Amino acid sequence: MGSEILKTAFESGLWSGNTKVLLTASMKTENLASRVGQSIDGRYIASGVVGIAPATSSPVMEAFRDNYKKRFNRAPNLYDPNTWDAAAVTILAAEAAKATSGTAIKGKILEVANPPGLEVSDICRALALVREGKAINYQGVSGPVDFTKSGDVIGSYEVWTIDYTGKIKIDSTIQAGKDPAGK
Questions:
Q1: Any long-range contacts for 78-84 (C-beta under 8 Å, 24+ apart)?
Q2: Among 23, 51, 62, 138, which has the minimal tally of Cβ within 10 Å of its Cβ?
Q3: What is the pairing mode between strands 136-138 and 118-120?
Q4: Phi, psi of 119 (to 5 degrees)
């Protein structure tokens, strides 16, 4: 849908390609440039657009993608790693609390997701360690899943663009969610 809007805006003269366009995270797809198309001179119409999307910087991301593809017969969508991590942290916090109430889970999130504790990415291993009473620091599929004292996730986001060849290029990564005290 977004690619059709960009293409229509270009074809109708509303967008010359020189105007900066900010795209949503869901527009970060490998085939966006080809779906929007090329101008008469062969330039990708979408080249130069800017978007922001969650960064996935985990060493276990590749295994997650492979397992996800085997299970669901498709690659994971943009927010699937974050969704997995949210569920994992909730499960680990519930297990640490030995309760399922929201208040009990909330009280254990920082304990299972933040330092100190053994860094662990595998949810089954993390669950076993929590059951043994060990301190853990869950490291998510999307990257570290650390929370501020106020409960916000400290996350990384990629600022991306489409280069002249039609490929997605990461321009920079920004950190979001840090407390003024540095955490």
A1: 78/25, 78/26, 78/28, 78/53, 78/54, 79/25, 79/54, 81/54, 81/56, 81/140, 81/141, 81/142, 82/54, 82/140, 82/142, 84/140, 84/141, 84/142
A2: 62
A3: parallel
A4: -70, 125
Distances (CA, A) of 151 to 28, 111, 183: 28, 12, 11
- Dihedral sign of CA atoms 82, 84, 89, 90 in order: positive
Diameter over CA atoms, the chain: 65
Helix 123-131 / helix 80-97 crossing angle, nearest 10 deg: 10
The 10s digit of each residue's pLDDT in 83-137 is 999 999 999 999 999 999 999 999 999 999 999 999 999 999 999 999 999 999 9
The token pair at 139 is 């490291």
